[in-house]
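A further point concerns the way the authors explain their paired sequence and structure data. For illustration, here is how one protein appears when written out as sequence plus structure tokens:
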Amino acid sequence: VTSDSDTQKVIWGVALACLAGILSGAAYCCVRALSSAKEHELWVLLSLPLFSLPFSAWTVFSVDKISLEALARHDFTTWAWFLMMGLSTQGGQVFLARGLALLPAANGTQAMYFGTVSGVLVGVALGDGWPTWQFWIGGSIILASLHFAEVAEQKRRATRLDDGAKTDGSLEEKNDKKSL
């Protein structure tokens, strides 16, 4: 039996997760737009923490009243985890910016769903519990949807190429004309 408080927490958690998804999608579109505008990769990478750090700092300072004593509460292992999180996040941002510079945001971000599956598996390797059957079903749906999205994209490309060949002559003729 769940209480009203637990139900509210679940609803609030789902709402925050949806908001995070919407804001992440907006950020990916901004990364794509900056990359398409030939903005330097380092500026694109800097733009994300440039806005997120002030908001994070405000939250930390208003909640925990940061002091040297508060910083010293964390042991070496915790700081090592923070460092690994920062490095992996930065690596993810580098590859995200490079990938989205090459693809439309809608195509590039599809593959990021794989991160959900791999994150759970890394969690298991780090000592979290073994995933439930719901994870395996959800993970299978994610991986299958990535496959079907790729197949649909290939069919769409093939159709566009066929339509182009029908309206403007064959592709071979086009290539011959370009080489002259």
Remarks:
- The mean pLDDT is 75.
- The CA atoms of residues 171 and 177 lie 10 Å apart.
- The radius of gyration is 23 Å.
